[in-house]
Amino acid sequence: MKNKAVMVVLLFIMLLSLVGCNGGTGKTTKSSTAIQGDTKTAVINENTKLKTAADLKNKRIGVLLGSIHDGYVTKTYPQAQLLQYKSSPDLILGVKSGKVDAAFYNRETLIEVFRNDNELAFLEERVYSTPIGIGFNKQNSGLREQFNAFLKQSKENGVYDDMVNRWINNGVTDMPVIDNPKTNGVLIVGMVSDKGLPFAIVKDNKLVGFDVELSERFAAYLGKELKPVDTEFGSLVTAVATKKIDMIASSMMITEERKQQIDFSDPYYELGASVFALKKNIAKYDEQPDTAAAIPLIKNLSARFHNNIIRENRYLLIFDGLKTTAVIALAAAIFGTLLGALVCFMRMSRTWLANTIARFYISIMRGIPVLVLLMIIFYVVFASVDISPILVAVLAFGMNFAAYVSEMFRMSIESIDKGQTEAGIAGGFTKTQTFFYIIMPQAIRRVLPVYKGELISLVKMTSIVGYIAVQDLTKASDIIRSRTFDAFFPLIMVAVLYFLVSWSLALVLDYMEARSNPKRNRNAGRVTND
């Protein structure tokens, strides 16, 4: 059975790879005459091709969630359909798959993207420019002043100009060696690892880029050890405002709205905002005959596997993400099961107070989305506490899991005839002994099928922990996609890994369910006696 399951998984991957093989070859299929959107289909011809950014007034426009482009598009294109993406790989995928007609993003990062992808191009290379700075908590003006002094010194001694030439002008991707005594504590810096070159990427499982080197040099200037915290872009302002991090170094544009929440350093670069789209949808790019030779499926899969998994030891990102996902899921399941048992006990209690608290807890946990609960615990409940994000994830998922588990336990217990309890007590058992020896074994057997489904749902829910700077399996996929620009392979790979984890858990619970079945045990005993 196991061998058959493995074969099914392999066939599943190959079939999906057949569907997505054109996505990684870097060629445009000429036969495509329409882009399938979320709500409409736009026929592509010479009259509907984009000429300037003004043509986007009634189009679908993609932006990065929490970016300055979000507000700009809302104000400039009120008739357009705005689609917000949580990461730059998702934004680029939205354009390549036709989910949006065009998107706004940083000019400097897009230049690097276009070096590796010949399907995309600028519709307008520079729509506007905005200074970027380092973000600080409003109560940490001392650290901001120290950074401004460091930045001024770097510009005077030529270090800053050298960084600009290497990272932005010449496209260098190697971090220099920076001497740092690391004797004055730790500097916690919020970054986005999939921001893209030249500012921040993961190379050989290490953060590199202009923002990373700038932070490394500032940490050395202070004599502190740099501790980068990789989080979602939309969570950075909240993280520094709640003192989860000391500063933001993620090429963040300085705006008046953001100034109300955090303080900014002196600008350290002028970032251009660009609009990009598929070449085939831009008028100035004439459609060329498709002369690219077809790449054999096996060779294509092999190349993509090497690019996404082997190159730069990216398999280590997947392995670390898988370990983190497994730890969070297992710990949350154990914690949630124990807490659920306690809540069940309170829910079935004859004490009014305990019963009311349990009812209220179950209603609250069921009514709040897990992502919102996760953010509240991390950024509100533990706002001023230095706590591991992984521990917060375990608490949040465990608390949510407990609400559902408690009701499963209660229903399974109440489904057992009360006469069995009375018979146990009449036979000389105490109420506690009756529960543990008579009621609980039957309740476990009845609850396992439902518990199994809820546990698998818990594993899949852990994919949102990237919002509190936890690098899980899904975040590892985002990092890989930001480097390879492969929209298909990393997502399918992560989907298969989640399936394997869920399938393994289901096998374990199926075994436990079979072991708890009295008919199976009686049959096994007969076979042994025979």
TrEMBL record:
Gene3D superfamilies cross-referenced by the UniProt entry: MetI-like, Periplasmic binding protein-like II
Regions crossing the membrane: 326-348, 360-381, 387-405, 489-512
Topology of the protein relative to the lipid bilayer: Multi-pass membrane protein
Ranges where the ABC transmembrane type-1 domain occurs: 322-509
Signal peptide coordinates: 1-22
Keywords for this protein: Amino-acid transport, Cell membrane, Membrane, Signal, Transmembrane, Transmembrane helix, Transport
Main location: membrane
Gene Ontology biological-process entries: amino acid transport
GO molecular function list: transmembrane transporter activity
Subcellular localization, as worded in the UniProt entry: Cell membrane
SUPFAM superfamilies: MetI-like, Periplasmic binding protein-like II
One term under GO cellular component: ATP-binding cassette (ABC) transporter complex
Family: Belongs to the binding-protein-dependent transport system permease family. HisMQ subfamily.
Protein's recorded name: Polar amino acid ABC transporter, inner membrane subunit
Originating organism: Sporomusa ovata
Lineage of producing organism: Bacteria, Bacillati, Bacillota, Negativicutes, Selenomonadales
